[in-house]
TrEMBL record:
<protein>
    <recommendedName>
        <fullName>Protein kinase domain-containing protein</fullName>
    </recommendedName>
</protein>
<dbReference type="InterPro" id="IPR011009">
    <property type="entry name" value="Kinase-like_dom_sf"/>
</dbReference>
<keyword id="KW-0067">ATP-binding</keyword>
<dbReference type="GO" id="GO:0005524">
    <property type="term" value="F:ATP binding"/>
</dbReference>
<dbReference type="GO" id="GO:0004674">
    <property type="term" value="F:protein serine/threonine kinase activity"/>
</dbReference>
<keyword id="KW-0547">Nucleotide-binding</keyword>
<feature type="domain" description="Protein kinase">
    <location>
        <begin position="1"/>
        <end position="208"/>
    </location>
</feature>
<keyword id="KW-0808">Transferase</keyword>
<keyword id="KW-0418">Kinase</keyword>
<dbReference type="InterPro" id="IPR000719">
    <property type="entry name" value="Prot_kinase_dom"/>
</dbReference>
<dbReference type="InterPro" id="IPR008271">
    <property type="entry name" value="Ser/Thr_kinase_AS"/>
</dbReference>
<dbReference type="Pfam" id="PF00069">
    <property type="entry name" value="Pkinase"/>
</dbReference>
<keyword id="KW-0723">Serine/threonine-protein kinase</keyword>
Length: 210
């Protein structure tokens, strides 16, 4: 089912075929010649808000597609966003993606520490809303050049995450506009059911459509 889903949508890196021998499994993937968004972010230090908004719009389209097919992504970050030759963004690397169906939860602890949602850390069960938390973290990183919760060890990152996004004083960050701040805060609500996009995908248009 996952393989079928990953061959059909414009904002998801296409998987054309798989092969295997006695030792390895090989995947024939779509070539995205622009490379990883992370490389662009590293070289430019941060993205202008207009550029970040375009990248996020592509990402939101991909997440909406996956969620409508019952799939939670669980590893949203610039390293997993590829740039096509025409400048569009596609999600790749579905190692943590899982089919959970609509209205269901999963309890597997996984993801990149800087992007993991509080309910994953607390083992409360998570659903598509965990991807929206990660989208808020991604927004912060694209605008500033680094994720908001950083530390030398994963456990320290998790402790910072559980203190919440408002403990960081985002209003004083010169790279984050008022509209972007509102977007991040609405995505990074501690209660998953209160996050922007949960059950109301159209709400995103207020923030990412100019």
């Amino acid at each position: 089912y996952l393989v079928h889903v990953f061959t059909l949508f414009s904002f998801v890196s296409r998987l054309f075929n798989t092969y295997r021998d006695n030792k390895y499994v090989y995947m024939l993937l779509e070539a995205c010649l622009g490379g990883e968004l992370w490389t662009i972010l590293r070289d430019s230090h941060h993205l202008e808000e207009r550029t970040a908004r375009f990248c996020l719009a592509c990402c939101i389209e991909a997440l909406d597609y996956l969620h409508r097919h019952g799939i939670v992504y669980r590893d949203l970050k610039p390293e997993n966003m590829l740039v096509t030759s025409k400048g569009y963004i596609k999600l790749c690397d579905f190692g943590f993606a899982k089919y959970i169906g609509i209205g269901q939860k999963t309890w597997t602890f996984c993801g990149t520490p800087e992007y993991v949602a509080p309910e994953v850390i607390l083992n409360q069960g998570h659903d598509f809303a965990a991807d929206y938390w990660s989208l808020g973290i991604l927004t912060f990183e694209l605008l500033t050049g680094a994720p908001p919760f950083q530390a030398s060890e994963p456990i320290k990152i998790y402790m910072k995450t559980l203190k919440g996004i408002d403990a960081l004083g985002l209003a004083q960050n010169k790279y984050i506009s008022l509209k972007a701040l509102q977007f991040i805060r609405r995505l990074c609500r501690f209660n998953p059911s209160e996050r922007l996009g949960v059950g109301k995908y159209a709400e995103f248009k207020k923030y990412v459509v100019t």
